[in-house]
């Protein structure tokens, strides 16, 4: 701001500023003071508007990105609203249904049978699981866990009610384990423990699931739902009796577990109080008293798990996952892991760890679903939208999965953006637009990848491999449009040059794909150059058969001047060869040959690489050799004895004008003139 406006702004923004007093004093000062203040206010307003406009331009890109994020968030909120509406209708229908019907009599062992040998029964149940289920060793490690009931069920699709797969459910005293069948497969372990029939699919705690009876409707009979946060599954029993038995046992087991948990908390509290009282009393009588080891260990375990935040942690994790507060959930996981790292390896703490690990698995699945591409999810978000989920997965130690899903997400977005392009206009225009979509996306992905995985150097190789695969997909589209159509060599050269320039821009992020691109299109370039060379040679032969070695006659000065102007556009100056106003002392064959060679030379230099040098030199040499053969044949023919001088003049034009033009093309690229072309130039001079 200027000095007057700056002073005015300081006065107006001071704490003791009184508007009424300021206006009254100003009005008493006279008209000149009022006009001066008006001018100052106007300057301040202009400077404020200018500053505001400058800030808007400065943060323009951020405004655009914020608008995109708001648009994406709007779509996700709409989806969330739709999901909440469905959940509300589902809960309403659940309230109307009966959880169980015709309660079956569940036979339970007597207290005497339970007290006889519970440890042996537990080992027997867990051994049964190890023999039958693959990958359930972690399930059997929890002390006090027992098998209550098991049986075969058929998993149904909740929407179509069609059978998905056959499963085997194992009801434990604290959880429900689901295993899928392994048909026609015998898997043996070492040491041998019998054939495995099932594969572990999932473990769900009883206090986190709900059982819902499904009424029989049409072919859908004997089915029931199990609501397992955060999803639900439908199963079908083989008979109504089996269905009732599952419903009753599940409901009864949930009640027993709730009662056990309540008793355990009360007993733990009473034990702490009693232990504290006994310890205090004994210490008063005998200061050298030492507690029994088992009692001391139990007290230590109870003390470690007695914190209020630990007791509420599983529910807090469930709430964070349900509300999609992944950052908060990961903060809780890190906090409890740090706390449990200092705890002893006791059975109670081990059981608590298993409960937390189950939530961590659900949290990981939720984060991975954020990165997975599905038809109902928006593909308009940039890599920043995925960086948040990636950061939380890395904090959970899942950097490999985060890297894989992040790159797959970007692949889907790049393919979607390319599909939005429409092929309109010239081929080179489409390729320029295609590069404008593909390479900036690749560069943006690279920058976001470096930010997200800056401390995980092992993931960098995965990004390089991904970039190469994406380039392969891009080249397939490029090859189809450029080399697969009817484009001439000039268009092909322009398109190749556009892509090469885009590849160089990737070096800004330390990624160089130029060699990969050249290697992918080398076969197509070779075929294009070879085909073009053969077409020119065929044209030389065809025109040579009809060549009468006569000067060009344009019949009028106007037409002759027009032809000279057209030829000058490709780099040939024919004015010194014009005589008698309408004649040119060159043949049509020579002029057409020179035009074709100049155009070919320019295109070959555009596509030039050191790996293709021999191919390009060979193409030019063969074309000049064919024209040289035509000149030699004409000189040896008795039909053109009178035209020898004219033939030599045409050969001289090719050597003195054409060869120098092509040599200039090579020098413009900083290349030496090929020895093969120098040798052919010498042969032309011999003819002269």
Judged by helices, strands and strand pairing, the structural class is alpha+beta
Overall body shape: elongated
* Uncertain parts: 97-116, 186-193, 285-293
Neighbour order of strands in the largest sheet: 1-5-4-3-2-8-7-6
**Chain-averaged pLDDT:** 78
Q: Helical amount among residues, as a percent range?
A: 55-70%
In whole angstroms, the N-to-C terminal distance is: 80 Å
Describe it:
It is a single chain. With 688 residues, this protein is an alpha+beta fold. Among the domains are: 26-57; 142-260, PH-domain like (Roll), CATH 2.30.29.30; 527-550 and 587-686, no CATH class. It has helices spanning 3-12, 19-28, 31-58, 60-96, 111-116, 118-132, 240-285, 293-304, 308-311, 313-322, 326-340, 347-371, 383-395, 399-419, 427-452, 460-482, 489-505, 514-545, 557-568, 588-606, 613-636, 644-668, 675-687, and strands spanning 133-134, 147-156, 163-172, 175-181, 198-205, 209-213, 223-228, 231-236, 552-553, 578-579, 583-584. The strands form two sheets. It has an eight-stranded mixed beta sheet, sandwiched between helices. Strands 9-11-10 form a three-stranded antiparallel beta sheet, with no helix packed on it. α10 (313-322) packs parallel to α12. The radius of gyration is 42 Å and the shape is elongated. It is found in: Cell projection, Growth cone; Cytoplasm, Perinuclear region. One of its GO terms (biological process) is protein transport. Its main location: other. Component of the exocyst complex involved in the docking of exocytic vesicles with fusion sites on the plasma membrane. InterPro entries: Cullin_repeat-like_dom_sf (IPR016159), Exo84 (IPR033961), Exo84_C (IPR032403), Exo84_C_1 (IPR042561), Exo84_C_2 (IPR042560), PH-like_dom_sf (IPR011993), PH_domain (IPR001849).
